[in-house]
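Field reference: "sequence" (input) and "structure" (output). Example, Sugar ABC transporter substrate-binding protein:
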Amino acid sequence: MPSIRTPLRTFGAATAVLLLASACSGAGGGAGGENSVNVLMVNNPQMQDLQKLTADNFTKDTGIKVNFTVLPENDVRDKISQDFSSQAGQYDVATISNYETPMYAKNGWLAPMDDFVSKDSGFDQADILEPIKQSLTAADGKVYAQPFYGESSFLMYRKDLFEAKGITMPEKPTWAQVAEAAQKVSTPEVRGICLRGQPGWGQVMAPLTTVVNTYGGTWFTKDWQAQVNAPEFKEATKFYVDLVRNYGESGAPQAGFAECLNNMTQGKVAMWYDATVAAGLLEADDSPIKGKLGFAQAPVVKTDTSGWLYTWAFGIQKASKKQDAAWKFISWASGKGYEELVGKNVGWAKVPDGKRSSTYQRPEYKQSSGSFAAAAETAIKGAKPLNPGVQERPAPGIQFVGIPEFTDLGTQVSQQISSAIAGAVTVDDALNNGQGLAEKVAAKYKGQ
């Protein structure tokens, strides 16, 4: 989702590889014979590595041909929704996230994977990081997708700039400490912090919702009372808006992941709170700030942790007549052996990480990502997709609310927030407008 995306690896990758035109390996339709599977997949670099490695490895070993249809994120989401909602069965496997998985499962669009897992001792489901597994488990307790990679969020900061100012950043900072550091380190040339301000349910609303959570706020109470203009939501939003207006990057109302990545890489900001995947880009060999960074956990106020959670995963369409072959592909693509294959053939820096405990124990992986691997693992393990705040929630999700209406609701509210960052409206007016929108959504669910 380039403009309204859940914070994620695909958008970060887009800065290095501009959204590629759709690429196909074989026809994506129902053709291909009995010994084949059709996979509909998002076009980010990690998935393209998978596409390149499949024929010479998975197909060679199993005899199962994989017909890939690879599309940009917005397009692939639309196509997956169309095919899975109609149960057309054109695609056996598709890339879905932890946002869609519980909803698709509830609608009966996905095949549960528990039986496949129990018969596949080599897959090692216990190795999947618990928050990731939890986020791909539906209300019926069954697992409906397997992760290809995962991420959380944390704080990245310039150690050299902090040392020059005599500032120490704790491993688990509060937002008050972050704001104080931003004030001390900020100059006209190097701003204190970069925070997303770009409209989008997965742009500004992603980091902001984690701040709302830890301030004690929520989009909805358990019984579907809208809380967008409640005191806690308002306090968190005012804090966020003031922080980015006073010490944030220039052009903040238009800044998303890509813009903050550029600001940080070019030395224009001293801190950045965003996706854990960003660390690999900042610590890349060609990064001007490689080796100058420190990493701290997502800042908190009232909660123990506040990092978000996102994963691209593989689901099997319930209507698929090739579920056994589909599982074999998923087991391979999400397995430990595939990570080793990528490490040896593409490079350990490109391993689809963030999903397995064993990844963080591999010496080769730790050597390539030693400066941030432990902090990223801690962030992902500490994410709480079912309990991200101080009160019970009516739907799963940390940086989103796991209902279909959130894409539109979050986007509309985000437009109000961006206007507040630009100074065009007050935070009070922005959230009062958002409250009306949230109440309309809540009305659909009350009494269910």
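The radius of gyration is 21 Å.
Residues 98 and 175 are 27 Å apart (CA to CA).
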